[in-house]
Write a structure and sequence with these properties.
The chain has about 700 residues and is of the alpha+beta class. It contains 24 helices and 20 strands. It has 3 domains: about 160 residues, no CATH class; about 230 residues, no CATH class; about 260 residues, no CATH class.
Length: about 700
């Protein structure tokens, strides 16, 4: 069945409503029944919707690339930096023009309506007509003096999301698991990838970086493209093998990538099909009802404006209460049940990340909508309960994943050189690292604790408590990570004990969840975050709030879920050669020094799967004092987040393994490996000083 055919019945069902809505909005752009300053707002939004309608049936192949670029900028103009300061999508401008309450609500509405271009592009008529009617309903409120009140507008917004949860949420679940929703897959497989106009077929914002990525990949041979794809797909296959999960029972793989990487993805699709897997490709959530703050997943493009996304990260606060949260959970459960025939065969995500973007330092705006204390608690509760629903239908112990990263042209003039160096880093010899990391693990398995201290301005001084091994001859605390699900090679990691894990974690700069943290400092007591601060903003209150919202995800505390030592000094040398240490993704950065993850362990929801290192020893340190609660009360065991924080080699003073008898063995000193058998890791570091 063709993709468009899936929506014929839906279109017939809503066609009359849709036609009436288009006509009414076209009239709104000319009417004067609403007083200023609101008239200007509604005219601008109506004009924008009319613009989207005019581009509804356009085929990118009928235009020159310059024309496509112009149309693309028209669609995203309201949120591009050069127009954002005077756009109603900007909460600060909307509040200035429309007042505090109306400004926030109407800026939110503007943001939601910007997304309807995607509904048009993908023939999602039911969602489209719902949002058009919401715009008309709110316009009607402003036409009448009696109903032109903040409480009336807020009520309309609330009941819209309450009533249409059963439209917006089910589609989001469906597109994540049903390969029939093949809009993006069809584009990848059917487009002429040598003709860069295809990029505009997505309907997403297309910057110079998407164009440059696709242009560069078109210079590579088919053999090179197949090899890039194979590193990715074979790591995926190997992940199933190592975890002892039968891949032959699976049918669907979800592909995450950046627009511009389609040549790699087309080759990967072919290779995945040889493994018996059909691709599923979806874009980031459009409506705030389905978004997770300002984080995006799926097939992504360069953000038109990260400040815009940050400004609207908590728009859900306009309508979130317990009743609506429970409504969302009810709809979510039914949506998963309806898609069980697909979730049963879901193999997991295969992710290609990008890096090189300028680290984003947001501006805090008082005009933005933010969660109340009660809403923070509801948000955390929703995450916990929704994760339980997901795990009921998509069992973590029954699927795997892989993740790899390549640079974006945003990294600068060295893009092509960095890309080729990254390919080398991603394909380092696993056998060499296996041997060295086994040496590290042999020592670490003798430790009751590991102490990490910073050097210079780095204030890190933390002691991490290790689990006791009952059978050290056949058990291990640390996993030997060799570039299967987690590429590139280069780390040993464990889930430490919380009791006895105490101290300070500090890093000068780190890029977490798409945000830059400056001089991040976290204090731990028995493995739980006790206090925290940074230097992103002028006041301590702003810094603490920033960390709570974006690292703790509105929780009061999180445990240490992982302690690891990264061994990929080759990646570190590459990062320093091109001065991109703070532009690399966590995926690579975590291999370039010791790191600590806050949140769940690496084994959350799959603790019962038996895993073995290449030397045959079983990995037994999978739980901590939080996750073990799953055996009595799953709701207390998991936090549904895992964020790695790495200290780069140059900020490391010492890493010491502490034995039960008090003996201390030095593993790293002054940013270099000193444990016998690990000296080879220093060779790339030596080249930096030559």
């Amino acid at each position: 069945m063709k993709y468009q055919d899936l929506f014929k019945e839906e279109y017939i069902a809503v066609s009359e409503r849709l036609s009436l809505a288009w006509d009414r909005i076209a009239d709104i752009s000319k009417e004067e029944s609403v007083p200023e300053p609101f008239r200007t707002y509604f005219h601008r939004i109506a004009d924008y919707i009319v613009l989207l309608k005019s581009q509804e049936a356009l085929d990118y192949r009928e235009f020159q690339i310059e024309e496509l670029e112009h149309m693309n900028r028209q669609i995203y103009g309201m949120i591009l930096p050069d127009q954002y300061e005077t756009s109603f999508a900007n909460p600060a401008y909307a509040v200035e023009q429309l007042g505090n309450e109306f400004g926030r609500m109407l800026s939110f509405l503007c943001s939601e309506l910007i997304g309807i271009g995607i509904y048009l592009r993908e023939c999602r008529y039911q969602e489209l007509v719902c949002f058009l009617e919401l715009f008309i309903e709110i316009y009607n409120l402003f036409e009448d003096d009696e109903s032109r009140k903040p409480e009336c507008v807020k009520k309309a917004i609330y009941y819209f999301y309450y009533d249409y949860s059963d439209v917006l949420i089910p589609y989001r679940i469906r597109e994540q698991f049903n390969p029939e929703l093949s809009f993006c897959t069809d584009l990848v497989e059917q487009a002429d990838l040598q003709d860069l106009r295809y990029l505009y077929g997505y309907g997403e914002y297309i910057s110079e970086y998407e164009l440059k990525t696709a242009e560069f990949l078109n210079t590579l041979s088919e053999k090179e493209i197949r090899e890039l794809a194979f590193t990715y797909t074979d790591g995926y296959r190997e992940g199933f093998e190592i975890a002892g999960i039968d891949l032959s029972k699976k049918k669907y793989v979800n592909l995450h990538y950046a627009i511009g990487q389609e040549r790699i993805i087309r080759a990967a699709i072919q290779q995945f099909r040889q493994l018996g897997l059909e691709p599923i490709i979806y874009r980031p959530a459009v409506s705030c009802l389905n978004r997770k703050q300002n984080r995006r997943s799926g097939v992504t493009a360069t953000s038109p404006n990260r400040q815009y996304e940050y400004d609207h990260r908590m728009d859900e606060a306009l309508y979130l209460d317990r009743n609506l949260m429970e409504r969302k959970l009810e709809v979510l459960a039914k949506a998963y049940e309806a898609n069980e025939r697909f979730t049963e065969y879901y193999a997991g995500p295969a992710v290609i990340e990008t890096f090189g973007e300028t680290p984003f330092e947001p501006i805090q705006k008082s005009e933005c909508v933010t969660f109340s204390k009660k809403q923070q608690e509801l948000s955390v509760e929703y995450t916990r309960q929704s994760s339980q629903i997901v795990n009921r239908y998509v069992k973590r112990e029954e699927y795997s994943f892989t993740i790899i990263a390549y640079p974006s042209p945003e990294i600068g003039a060295d893009f092509e050189a960095v890309f080729r160096e990254t390919v080398k880093v991603n394909t380092l010899d696993k056998k060499v690292y296996r041997r060295i990391q086994e040496t590290l693990i042999q020592e670490l398995n003798q430790a009751v604790a590991v102490r990490v201290k910073g050097t210079g301005k780095n204030r890190t001084d933390i002691t991490v408590s290790m689990h006791e091994l009952e059978h050290p001859d056949r058990e291990t605390n640390f996993e030997n990570c060799l570039a299967d699900v987690n590429i590139p090679v280069g780390e040993v990691f464990t889930s430490p004990k919380l009791a006895g894990t105490n101290g300070i974690l500090n890093v000068s700069e780190v890029f977490l969840n798409d945000l830059k943290f400056i001089d991040l400092e976290i204090h731990f007591q028995d493995g739980m975050i006790e206090t925290y601060t940074c230097k992103n903003f002028e006041t301590e209150e702003e810094n603490v709030r920033f960390i709570k919202e974006n690292l703790l995800l509105n929780r009061e505390t999180l445990p240490i879920g992982e302690f690891a030592i990264g061994t990929n000094t080759t990646a570190y040398v590459m990062a320093n050669r091109y001065n991109i240490v703070y532009k690399l993704p966590i995926l690579i950065v975590e291999k370039m020094g010791p790191h600590f993850a806050v949140g769940d362990t690496c084994y959350s929801y799959s603790e019962e799967n038996r895993l073995f290192n290449p030397d045959g020893k079983e990995i037994v340190a999978k739980d901590n004092e939080c996750s073990i609660l799953r055996k009595k009360d799953e709701s207390r065991a998991y936090f549904n987040c895992h964020t790695d924080i790495t200290i780069p080699y140059e900020e490391i003073g010492t890493i010491v393994s502490i034995h039960a008898d008090g003996k201390e063995v030095m593993i790293m000193k002054d940013g270099r490996f000193v444990l016998n058998g690990t000296e080879e890791l220093n060779k790339p570091l030596d080249s930096m000083n030559m």
